[in-house]
Design brief:
The complex is a heterotrimer of chains A (about 260), B (about 220) and C (about 230). Chain B is an all-alpha fold. Chain B has 8 helices and no strands. Classes of the chains: A alpha/beta (about 260), B mainly alpha (about 220), C mainly alpha (about 230).
């Protein structure tokens, strides 16, 4: 039986971004279908983080277009922008939990203030999400009292509470102590199993390889190569890709 | 407007020397404040309990009573009772100096306390006496850290010096006021007074910044 | 015995009257000054460039001119343009705008000290600018600004004594009148000073209580925070 393919959930076309004279993104395009998990890898400074920030318009790109579910996002309309951002969840490298709120209220606040839910409804939903990431017991704690891994899990709960269609994860474990990485990875794996559409920027090759449907190798603002994990990680076409992946593989052998 | 400008131009020869008076008051008060403040801060950090108590009371007293009240208290009250005659200028410097010492002691105390414990430990370990350790190791670092607080203190004293006008010190404010009452151009003359203070504050702050940079220790992260 | 009687009949009523005027000056100008300070602090960080500039000038002049000069401008200077303020009004306005400028600096510093990531996270969840500032940035900034703003309020209590210089007879003014009448400068001004000490101490205690009650883990004051 052939199921008619609904169009891509997220479509990004030809994003270009300059910082002064320096071109950070030189025309990036990509597409995400529902349930796709794409990992972006590459050396520092390649623009991976900037790309994610451009996708949800936290950084204003200079050229390019973005569609969600077939509709183009008009970034000049504040209304359209805020609506779009609710549908795109973002996980930051340095968590960015709201320091003055407990874990519970961190998850709750956007539900109350942006989605306009009632306080009790928001609270119920927040507790569900915290439970989902295993942080229900810590819900009354403030960010300063949580470990890095716990903070990141709360930030995932906070993003999930908004019912996003796409999740952007910007090096979610880069700021964590090695022993705390595992708990965040397991939450992300659960998300993937649940069918969440994701773009994951990471240095964790083993994790990326196991999770992703497709890996994109980025360097100096361009996607040099993209393809299934087996190909990119061990058998890339592009010389540079092979070089980069080879180095990382040797480094990580035995740790993933 | 032209009347105002005329008044200012005519009054300048009389007003400008006031800058010298103000600066003398300010520098005098700050120096006295620094000297006393240094002693007080060291006493407060390294002294015994009773000593810390006494310093605490001193600080509380001089930070809690308004400048104007202290000026009146000293000039009309205490000195008159003791039958000591001092000029308004001297009294102003002393009172401002005492108040400043209270604030500066806290700035320095904060700077000293922010230094890692290891500094004193290491100094003792190589056989330095406490006074040497404090003098050669702790204070040189603490004084550098205190410069921003000191700059702030300078701006405060600079503006407080205008209050000494109440005792009759012939500083900037007093002189501008004098010219104002002669020419009835109060508005412009007070603007002038304010601008002069602003300029002096700005110049002083810039000088402190230069000093801070000159004495900065490379790689010393705050 | 005679001294005590003197105090009861002559000194106390006059000083209490002065204290009342002082409080009438201090409390409203503290509240209004804080309000102006918060408003201008927000404008200087998040406002339209022209507004930012204007607010910047406001702070520059009202922090740069000595308070005494400002008071004189309001009381003796404004008549030049035809506005005649009462001593009390001039003092009140002077204190309000002056302390507002200082509060503005503390608020601005606090707002700038909030990590950029907080705003990014709020935006990523769909908050608009106004909501992000009011629900996320401000609650944190207010806690950071408390020590500085609290300090400024203490200063206001002390500087209210300058109202005497524009002939508004509050506590210090009453003290001066009494003292020169009875030639008892030392005693009277010790009492006046003592009253200010009590006011300042009470205010400090209250501010510490407030800081404690809104304390959040992670927002602690650095140990032995030095407030000048």
């Amino acid at each position: 039986m052939v199921i008619a393919e609904a169009g891509p959930v997220l479509r990004v076309q030809n994003i270009r971004k300059w910082y002064g004279k320096h071109e950070i993104l030189k025309g990036i395009s990509l597409e995400l279908n529902k349930g796709d998990i794409k990992c972006v890898v590459g050396p520092s400074g390649s623009g991976k983080s900037t790309l994610l920030h451009c996708i949800n318009f936290l950084v204003q790109f200079d050229e390019g277009r973005i569609w969600m579910n077939g509709e183009e996002i008009n970034y000049n309309s504040k209304r359209a922008l805020y609506d779009f951002r609710q549908k795109v969840g973002m996980i930051f490298q340095d968590f960015n939990l709201f320091d003055h709120l407990t874990a519970l209220r961190n998850v709750q606040i956007a539900l109350v203030r942006v989605k306009k839910l009632s306080k009790s409804e928001a609270r119920r939903r927040a507790m569900v999400e915290l439970e989902r990431v295993g942080m229900k017991d810590h819900m009354k704690k403030y960010p300063a009292e949580l470990s890095g891994g716990q903070k990141q899990r709360v930030s995932i709960a906070r993003a999930l509470a908004m019912d996003p269609e796409v999740m952007l994860l910007d090096e979610p474990t880069s700021a964590l102590d090695p022993e705390l990485i595992g708990e965040v990875h397991s939450v992300i794996r659960d998300l993937a199993r649940g069918g969440m559409t994701m773009i994951l920027v990471t240095h964790e090759f083993g994790f990326a390889g196991a999770l992703a449907k497709e890996i994109l190798f980025m360097e100096e603002g361009v996607i040099l190569e993209q393809g299934p994990p087996e190909k990119i990680l061990s058998n890339a076409e592009c010389e540079r890709t092979r070089e980069f992946c080879g180095k990382i593989n040797r480094l990580h052998k035995g740790t993933d | 407007m032209t009347q105002g400008l005329t008044a200012i131009v005519e009054g300048l020869p009389y007003i400008l020397p006031g800058i010298g008076v103000t600066m003398t008051v300010v520098v005098g008060a700050l120096s006295m404040g620094l000297l006393l403040g240094l002693i007080l801060s060291v006493l407060q950090v390294y002294g015994t309990r009773p000593i810390r108590r006494v310093v605490g009371i001193y600080v509380w007293f001089f930070r809690g009573i308004p400048l104007l009240v202290l000026l009146f208290l000293f000039y009309f009250g205490i000195l008159a009772s003791l039958q000591i005659e001092l000029s308004p200028f001297t009294v102003s410097v002393i009172v401002l100096g005492l108040i400043s010492s209270a604030y500066q002691s806290q700035i320095l105390r904060g700077a000293i306390l922010s230094l890692p414990e290891g500094q004193l430990k290491a100094a003792r370990a190589i056989g330095m006496s406490d006074s040497k350790a404090i003098g050669f190791i702790i204070l040189p670092q603490a004084l550098r850290l205190a410069i921003p607080g000191w700059t702030n203190e300078y701006t405060i004293i600079m503006k407080d010096s205008a209050v000494t006008y109440a005792l009759g010190v012939a500083e900037i404010m007093a002189r501008c006021n004098h010219v104002a009452s002669r020419t009835y151009q109060h508005f412009w003359l007070y603007i002038l007074a304010g601008l002069i203070f602003l300029a002096l504050t700005y110049i002083g702050t810039k000088i402190f910044h230069i000093v801070e940079e000159k004495v900065a220790i490379k790689g010393y992260a705050r | 015995m005679e001294e005590l009687l003197f105090i009861r009949q002559e000194v106390a009523p006059a000083l209490l009257q002065g204290l009342w005027v002082s409080l009438l000056l201090i409390v409203p100008s503290a509240v209004c000054g804080l309000f102006i300070g918060i408003l201008s602090g927000i404008i200087r960080v998040y406002g339209h460039p022209i507004l930012k500039r204007l607010a910047g000038f406001y702070v520059l002049f009202f922090r740069g001119f000595p308070l005494l000069v400002q008071l004189y401008l309001w009381y003796f200077g404004l008549p030049y343009v035809g506005i005649y303020l009462s001593p009390f009004t001039a003092a009140f306005i002077g204190f309000t705008f002056c302390s507002g400028a200082y509060h503005s600096e503390y608020v601005r510093g606090a707002l700038l000290s909030i990590k950029r990531g907080q705003l990014l996270a709020a935006q990523s969840l769909g908050f608009n600018k106004f909501l992000a500032i009011s629900s996320i940035i401000l609650p944190q900034a207010i806690r950071r600004a408390l020590p500085g703003c609290g300090n400024e309020l203490i200063y206001l209590i002390k500087y209210s004594s300058l109202a005497y210089m524009v002939t508004c007879i509050e506590l210090t003014g009453q003290g001066k009148i009494l003292a020169s009448l009875h030639y008892k400068y030392t005693e009277i001004f010790f009492i006046v000073g003592g009253i200010y000490l009590v006011l300042v101490s009470i205010a400090t205690w209250m501010l510490n209580r407030i800081e404690d009650s809104v304390r959040i883990p992670g927002f602690e004051r650095p140990k032995d925070f030095v407030t000048t």
